[in-house]
């Protein structure tokens, strides 16, 4: 089953529609990352399909900055307030998107009441923590396995990651996919960077786990352009004075960055999918990446036509210069947020018949 062809995704029977979908996530606006963009796009699509979808994030709780990730806020003691918000929303389905304090509190709330829920695996936190602290990933994977085992299903977007997690003992894994905003990201959104060609682009968080130095160390013609922000930005600027760091870009400015590049280089070895790959392809820009989980799943059988995967990232970047931009765009058009949202909806599970919606409102505050 190839993730590169979303139409091939199996779709288990989902709950009746229309219904109320509640997502609990420790990653939410104003954070900017793949999890937030995915959940925002999915909730918008669910609303367009006639459902009521909401995300409970950390923005309304007392929070502290996450160590080594200060822009990520961790909710402090959210259990009681979160329970009130869940009950007030009266969901038909509950999805726990992350494994942080809010995710743990929502999991505890559901288990205590015998209610069913789903989870999703978005981020390789064991590898991220290992890269930052040197701690071994195995104990963290063991904790994650227990966290997700309590749910009725764990949604995972990349087939190769699903296979890896199966080998690690994770169960109840359900296939998902991702989409791209085809109206925002398109080949016509070009701008003139006034840089020597070809322009090799990186878009994403500037952090150690993204392996950006593997791109910046390459000997390539033309220019290297980096779009994004993060804890490594200042040090990389000092180390690579010839690289053009332009900070974060959003909306039309981000779309123009993609469309104006010649190749999007994706050096990460730990991303679980890589939304930026789809955004680049939708902009007509071919991609170069390592042959690892994420890029291999996004490109699928189109590797060699819309992107180059190679253990030699420099070779991949140069080879990608020869690829057809119209083919890149056509390939990206398979990945719509409507399709991703339909798959998400079909994978959800209903709360059991003693749903909180059926309880008298005067009793909900006691839950």
Number of domains: 2
Per DSSP E runs of 2 or more residues, the count of β-strands stands at 14
- CATH fold title of the largest domain: Rossmann fold
**Average residue-wise pLDDT:** 89
Structural class category: alpha/beta
How much of the sequence lies in strands comes to 15-25%
The low-pLDDT segments are 1-12, 353-367
Number of alpha- plus pi-helical segments: 15
Task: Spell out the key features of this protein.
367 residues; alpha/beta; Rossmann fold; 2 domains; 6-stranded parallel sheet; 14 strands; 37% helix; disordered N terminus; disordered C terminus
Description:
By secondary structure, this protein is α/β, with parallel strands linked by helices. It folds into two domains: 6-179 and 339-364, Rossmann fold, CATH 3.40.50.2000; 199-335, 3-Layer(aba) Sandwich (Rossmann fold). It is 37% helix and 15% strand. It has helices at 34-48, 79-89, 101-113, 125-133, 137-149, 159-167, 213-216, 233-239, 251-260, 275-282, 295-299, 313-320, 325-332, 337-347, 361-364, and strands at 20-24, 52-56, 63-66, 69-75, 93-96, 118-120, 154-156, 173-175, 199-203, 223-227, 244-245, 263-266, 287-289, 307-309. A six-stranded parallel sheet has the order 2-1-5-6-7-8, sandwiched between helices. The protein has a six-stranded parallel sheet with strand order 11-10-9-12-13-14, with helices on both faces. A two-stranded antiparallel sheet has the order 3-4. The longest helix has 15 residues, at 34-48. It is globular, with a radius of gyration of 21 Å. The N and C termini lie far apart (42 Å). The relative contact order is 0.16.
């Amino acid at each position: 089953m190839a993730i590169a062809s979303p139409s091939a995704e199996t779709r288990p029977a989902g709950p009746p529609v229309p219904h109320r979908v509640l997502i609990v996530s420790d990653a939410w606006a104003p954070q900017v990352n793949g999890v937030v963009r995915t959940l925002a796009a999915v909730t918008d699509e669910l609303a367009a399909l006639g459902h009521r979808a909401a995300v409970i994030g950390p923005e309304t709780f007392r929070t502290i900055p996450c160590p080594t990730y200060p822009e990520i806020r961790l909710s402090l003691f959210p259990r009681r307030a979160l329970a009130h918000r869940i009950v007030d929303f009266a969901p038909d389905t509950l999805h726990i998107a992350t494994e942080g304090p809010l995710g743990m509190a929502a999991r505890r709330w559901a288990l205590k009441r015998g209610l069913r829920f789903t989870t999703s695996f978005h981020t390789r936190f064991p590898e991220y923590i290992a890269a930052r602290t040197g701690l071994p990933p195995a104990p963290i994977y063991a904790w994650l396995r227990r966290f997700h085992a309590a749910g009725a299903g764990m949604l995972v977007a990349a087939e190769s990651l699903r296979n890896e997690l199966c080998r690690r003992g994770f169960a109840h894994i359900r296939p998902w996919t991702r989409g791209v905003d085809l109206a925002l990201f398109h080949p016509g959104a070009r701008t003139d960077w006034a840089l020597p060609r070809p322009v090799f682009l990186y878009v994403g968080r500037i952090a150690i786990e993204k392996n950006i130095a593997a791109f910046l160390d390459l000997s390539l013609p033309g220019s290297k352009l980096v779009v994004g922000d993060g804890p490594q930005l200042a040090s990389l600027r000092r180390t690579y004075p010839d690289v053009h760091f332009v900070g974060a870009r959003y909306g039309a400015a981000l779309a123009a960055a993609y469309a104006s590049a010649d190749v999007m280089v994706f050096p990460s070895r730990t991303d679980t999918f890589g939304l930026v790959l789809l955004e680049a392809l939708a902009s007509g820009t071919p991609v170069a990446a390592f042959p690892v989980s994420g890029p291999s799943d996004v490109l699928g059988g189109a590797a060699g036509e819309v992107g180059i995967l190679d253990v030699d990232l420099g070779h991949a970047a140069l080879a990608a210069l020869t690829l057809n931009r119209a083919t890149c765009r056509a390939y990206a058009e398979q990945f719509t947020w409507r399709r991703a949202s339909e798959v998400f909806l079909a994978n959800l599970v209903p709360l059991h018949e003693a749903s909180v919606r059926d309880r008298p409102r005067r009793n909900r505050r006691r839950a």
